[in-house]
Amino acid sequence: MNYLASVGSYAIMIREVFKKPTKWRIMKSLIYKEIDELIFSSLGIIIFISFFIGAVVAIQTALNLTNPLIPRNLIGFATRQSVILEFAPTFVSIIMAGKVGSYITSSIGTMRVTEQIDALEVMGVNSLNYLVFPKIIAMLFYPFAIAISMYVGIFGGWMAGVFGGFLTSTDFITGLQTDFVPFHIAYAFVKTLIFAFVIATIPSFHGFYMKGGALEVGKASTTSFVWTSVVIIILNYILTQLLLG
Amino acid sequence: MIDVQDIHKSFGDAHILKGISTTFEKGKTNLIIGQSGSGKTVFLKCLLGLFVPEQGNIVYDGKKYAELSDDEKRDLRQEMGMVFQGSALFDSMTVEGNVMFPLEMFTKQSKSEMKDRVDAVLKRVNLIDAHHKFPSEISGGMQKRVAIARAIVMNPKYLFCDEPNSGLDPKTAILIDDLIKEITEEYNITTVINTHDMNSVMQIGEKIIFLKDGLLEWEGTKNEIFKTDNEAVTNFVYSSDLFKKVRQMYIQEQN
C-alpha cells in the first residue's frame, strides 16, 4: 500500500514539475549549472570505469577463446557488443544512480531540512519546477556522456587486446565492423534517455518528500540509490524485450 | 490587516486548530505564543497559505484566501515576506544573491535597479560589507538580518517570522526584535511573529495571542499580559522566577 502511495506521489510530482514554469532567464542559468554538476563533473569517473571495463571484456573474451577455429577478431566483436548494448548504457547508469542520484537526493533533502524549499513555496515559486526541471533537462545531455563511455570502452578493449598481445589492431577493427547493426546504437540511446529521466527524478522524489534531519538525508540518499538501481534494472529488461526481443 | 475567522485544521485524527478567530492589525507587531504542540506553527503555516484550513476563512485586506484563483494566490504570496526559524537562506547563493532572488523571480527590473534595491535593504538591516559572503561564512545574527532583508526586499504587506531570535544571544535577539518592530512601523506592514521568547513578548508585543491545545486562550497587549488572571497564560509567561519578579514589580508600580 505504501509503495502504491509512493508511485502516486511520484506521478503527482512529475506533473507539478512541468507546471508553472520559472522565468527563462533564471531557468537557463540553473540548467547550465546542473549540466556542469551532473554531466561534466561525472565524465572523469565515466571515462575511468569505461576504459577498464572495455579492457577487461577484451581480455576475458581473449582468454576464453581456446578453440583455434574461432577467429581472433571475435574479441573486437564481443567488446563492441558488450560495451554498446549493456556496459555503457546500463552499468554506467547504475554508477550514475550512485554518484549523481545521491548528490540530487542529498542536495534537495538538505534544502527540505533547512526550510529552503518552504522559503521557495512562501515566495510563490513552484519549487518542484525550480529544483527538478533543470535536472531533467541537464540529464538530456546524458547520452553524450554515454557516447563517450562507448568510445572509451571500445578503446580500452583495443588497448588491452593489442598491447596485451591477444590480437592485432587490424583483427580488432575487423571484429568491430563485423555484423554491425546500427539499430543497436539507437536501442542503447533510447535506454540511456529513459535511464536519464529515472536518474533525475527518483532521487529528486526521495529528497523532496523526505522528513526529518541530517540522518534522514543520508538514509534518503541510500534509499534513492536502491530504488533508482532497481527501476533501471527492471526497465532495462522491459526495454530489451520490447526493442530487441 | 489579516482577519482570521474560525479556522480549523486537522492532520488525520489529530485536530490541531479548533476554531481560531482573531485580527492582526497593520503597522503592528502581532505575536503568537504558546507551548510546544499548541498549534502555533500550523497556525502560522495556515496564514502563509502553506496549509489549507478545512473550515473558516483567512482574509487579507478584504481578500478571502480560499476564494482566490491560483494566480491571485501567487500574487498574494508575493506580498508576503517570511523569516524562518533557521533563516532558510539558499546556501548556494551569496548574501546579495539571496536578497536579490525574489526580485529576479518576480520583477522585470534591470540588474542595476535590483542591485540598488538590494544595497538599500542590506543597509536597512545594518549589513554593509557582507554582499559577497555565503550564508555559511556569516554569523547566526547576520543570517537572520539577511533573511529579514530578503523578506522585505519586495516591499511586502505582510511579514511573518517563525522564532526569529531562536539560537541567538540575548543582545543580538534584542537587536533583531527592534529591527522587526522598526521595519513594521516604517513600512506599515502587518507583522505576525511566532515566538517562545518572553523577552520579545515584553519588548515588541503590541498584540499577543496565546494558543493552548489549538484554541485561542487569551489575547491582549504586552501591558495587559502583566495584569491577566488567566492561569494558563501566567503559568506559561511567568514560568521563570525572573519574570515572576518583573510582574510583581509591575503590579506594585501600577498600584
UniProtKB/TrEMBL annotation, chain A:
Originating organism: Maribacter orientalis
Phylogenetic classification of the source organism: Bacteria, Pseudomonadati, Bacteroidota, Flavobacteriia, Flavobacteriales
Membrane-spanning segments: 38-63, 83-106, 127-145, 151-173, 185-205, 225-244
MF terms in GO: phospholipid transporter activity
Record PANTHER family: ABC TRANSPORTER PERMEASE PROTEIN-RELATED (PTHR30188), PROTEIN TRIGALACTOSYLDIACYLGLYCEROL 1, CHLOROPLASTIC (PTHR30188:SF4)
Keywords carried by this UniProt record: Membrane, Transmembrane, Transmembrane helix
Name under which the protein is recorded: Phospholipid/cholesterol/gamma-HCH transport system permease protein
Superkingdom of this protein's organism: Bacteria
GO cellular component: ATP-binding cassette (ABC) transporter complex
From TrEMBL, chain B:
Residue ranges constituting the ABC transporter domain according to the UniProt record: 2-238
GO MF terms held by the record: ATP binding; ATP hydrolysis activity
Origin: domain of life: Bacteria
Keyword terms: ATP-binding, Nucleotide-binding, Transport
Classification via Pfam families: ABC_tran
InterPro entries: AAA+_ATPase, ABC_transporter-like_ATP-bd, ABC_transporter-like_CS, P-loop_NTPase
The keyword Transport appears for this protein: yes
Signal peptide from the UniProt entry: none
PANTHER family for this protein: INTERMEMBRANE PHOSPHOLIPID TRANSPORT SYSTEM ATP-BINDING PROTEIN MLAF, PROTEIN TRIGALACTOSYLDIACYLGLYCEROL 3, CHLOROPLASTIC
Name listed for the protein in its UniProt record: Phospholipid/cholesterol/gamma-HCH transport system ATP-binding protein
Species assigned in the record: Maribacter orientalis
